[in-house]
């Protein structure tokens, strides 16, 4: 059982124009079964009623910072890292709802496993009304997370709790805006053991505010830089074509490449890792075969099954009969 008295947690929650949901988010933290925390709320220049709602709470654990002008999410998060005093730092978003035992369970895991520096969880997606829409899953174990993260963010940002010293050492990077969490978690994942608890410890709200085209362009550039960082562990040089092909696996709706280009890139990853042993080869092989299958399933190629089985990416040990049947029937 974790010694709460000697394990202060900082819950870091940035707020920007979140008047519709921030009250519920705050209440979900104040009602945690784990009591020894500081709740660092940073209002980043909101122009709605967020300030009034936050100010209405009188709990002494709340440490409130009210920025008069908007500094942006990266600067606000880093401001929070500097101000935090906890041994662990848990992230929270102003439109989400934490389950009552979230802090208890994550702090217990990190305390029992001190080599692990980052811990996330599964989540439940909810809409603007709070209705559950679907479950959000991520790989649990460090080796699987490392492989999964090579292709897409392995953590749901507002579910994470991290060792404070570690997350402060890396911090959020302004040069990776709108994918700052993906790069930060990639750095930690490539340096330390990490985990996702197999429990749904957050209700993650998905609602109508879509990302603007300008922000999306910046996000794509940040994702590309993160991919370049990850691929640099396998390749001495990562060219632009390889980056774009790899990014099309992360966001298949944004780009189209030939089957040959996709297959060639994935095979190169498999072969490079066989030499350098950066990732678990068995898990990487399974992930690459899955991504190759997903690409073929969406393609117009009528010979997809033959391409799938005939590829160097295919192994019988990773064979999934449902995949074969779907390719056969497409």
From TrEMBL:
Pfam families recorded: Glycos_transf_2
Domain Glycosyltransferase 2-like: 10-146
UniProt cross-references to InterPro entries, sorted A to Z: Glyco_trans_2-like, Nucleotide-diphossugar_trans
Protein's UniProt name: Glycosyltransferase 2-like domain-containing protein
């Amino acid at each position: 059982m974790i010694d709460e008295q000697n394990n202060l947690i900082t819950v870091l929650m940035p707020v920007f124009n979140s008047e519709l949901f921030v009250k519920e988010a705050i209440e979900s933290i104040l009602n945690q079964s784990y009591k020894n925390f500081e709740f660092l709320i940073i209002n980043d220049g909101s122009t709605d009623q967020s300030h009034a709602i936050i100010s209405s709470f009188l709990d002494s654990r709340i440490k409130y910072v009210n920025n008069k002008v908007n500094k942006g999410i990266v600067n606000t998060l880093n401001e929070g890292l500097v101000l935090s005093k906890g041994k662990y730092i848990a992230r929270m978003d102003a439109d989400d709802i934490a389950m009552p035992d979230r802090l208890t369970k994550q702090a217990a895991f990190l305390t029992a496993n001190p080599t692990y520096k980052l811990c996330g969880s599964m989540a439940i997606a909810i809409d603007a009304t709070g209705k559950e829409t679907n479950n959000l899953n991520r790989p649990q174990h460090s080796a699987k997370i490392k492989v999964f993260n090579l292709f897409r963010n392995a953590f749901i940002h507002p579910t994470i709790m991290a060792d404070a010293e570690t997350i402060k050492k890396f911090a959020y990077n302004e040069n990776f805006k709108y994918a700052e969490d993906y790069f930060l978690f990639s750095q930690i994942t490539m340096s330390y053991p990490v985990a996702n608890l197999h429990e749904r410890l957050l209700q993650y709200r998905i609602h109508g505010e879509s990302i603007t085209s300008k922000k999306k362009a910046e996000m794509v550039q940040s994702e590309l830089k993160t991919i370049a960082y990850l691929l640099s562990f396998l390749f001495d040089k990562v060219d632009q074509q390889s980056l774009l092909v790899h990014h099309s696996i992360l966001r298949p709706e944004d780009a189209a490449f030939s089957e040959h280009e996709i297959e060639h890139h994935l095979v190169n990853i498999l072969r490079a890792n066989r030499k350098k042993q950066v990732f678990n080869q068995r898990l990487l092989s399974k992930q690459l075969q899955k991504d190759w299958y997903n690409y073929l399933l969406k393609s117009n190629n009528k010979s997809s099954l033959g391409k799938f089985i005939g590829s160097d990416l295919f192994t019988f040990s990773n064979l999934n009969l449902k995949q074969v049947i779907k390719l056969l029937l497409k």
